[in-house]
Amino acid sequence: MTEKLYDLDSHLREFSAKVISCEKDGERWAVVLDRTAFFPEGGGQAADSGELGGCRVLDVQEASGVIRHYLDAPLTAGEAVAGKLDWEKRFRRMQNHSGEHLLSGLVHAHYGYRNVGFHLGDGDVTVDFDGELTRPQLDELETEVNLAIAGNVPVTCWYPAKEELNALEYRSKLELTENVRLVKIEGYDLCACCAPHVSRTGEIGSMHILDFMRHRGGIRLRMLCGLDAVEDARARYQATLSISGLLSVPQLETPKAVRRVLGELEETKQALADARRQILQMKAAALPETTGNLCLFEPELDMLSLRELVNAGMEKTSGMCAAFSGKDGDWKYIIGSRSVDLRSLAKEINAAINGRGGGRPEMIQGSCTASRKEIEAYFGLKAPKAEKE
Ligand SMILES: [Zn+2]
């Protein structure tokens, strides 16, 4: 059985070991060592990466008590090799994971909720609790966790004997009975967990709860600790800084300023829609009386306005009034007539203008992909003068 050096010293970044076996596994090689500082995936924490005997360690997995290091090149059984972890990556995970224990311990102590889901990705940590918490409650918890970090209390990990374990009250996701490893944060938490943690809470640096949402009768929150939290905060400051520059307001007043700008945008949209409607009414009033077909084109109209235009056009012609909104190759159309049975003509019209659609005898609507030229050619006249842009 491989000696778990990471259990004894979570800060061990380099070590030497003997290769017990090396087997080809697909594109990779699975190497078993007599001892290792590489943590295999577990407890919500990803496997360590790094170098081993000059090869890249791509993944580490423990199955049936055997820890396999998956490498990009083979090693020789019996040889002594040096291992080196991607330390910063591991340290960030230890910061996040230890911070999660503090938070989960405090949530359990104050509210009795259990941590029922934990995902520790790089720069992305989510925790699920089986009860709901509000933002003010989370703010209080965040402060309390950061006070625990500032308190720099010891974090210890050990495998208690059965009698000791039975006498202890600890948090655990699984009903484990054998080889239970406990992680104790002095004064805050006791939890079964196999992953490496920091030695004192001060190493966590800080903990930020980013956001949260309702999730399966409880909540799912996103949090970050230490270096990940600093990088995340930096990115947020930069985003706020650029918004504050664009709006020429102090950083903390950006939400108010954005609301104001969005309100103004809404008013402008409304005013533009009103103006378009007025222009449309003027255009409709200016349509010539004709016995031929009217063919009208508008760059951007909703179906309601397009229908109003067609209704106005139908008053001016004894033929068809066909109105199109959009651009060449992508039109919505409405065609109306007081004399022609459009329902029976729909097939022919759609074939001529590459369209699809239908409706009632006096009005049909749909879409088509013909060009304006092709449409005008079909309806047998140039668009009325008033419609030229
Ligand atoms: Zn854990």
How would you describe this structure in keywords?
single chain, alpha+beta, Threonyl-tRNA Synthetase, Chain A, domain 2, 389 residues, disordered C terminus, five-stranded mixed beta sheet, Diaminopimelate Epimerase, Chain A, domain 1, 20 strands
Helix-strand layout with pairing:
Elements: E1 3-4, H1 5-8, E2 14-25, E3 28-33, E4 35-36, E5 50-52, E6 55-63, E7 66-71, E8 80-85, H2 87-111, E9 115-121, E10 124-129, H3 135-150, E11 155-158, H4 162-167, E12 182-185, E13 189-192, E14 207-215, E15 218-225, H5 226-247, H6 254-285, E16 294-298, H7 303-316, E17 320-327, E18 330-337, H8 342-352, E19 355-359, E20 363-368, H9 372-379
Parallel strand pairs: 1-4, 16-17
Antiparallel strand pairs: 2-3, 2-8, 3-7, 5-6, 5-8, 6-7, 9-10, 10-15, 11-12, 12-13, 14-15, 17-18, 18-20, 19-20
Helix pairs in contact: 2-3, 6-7
The chain binds zinc ion.
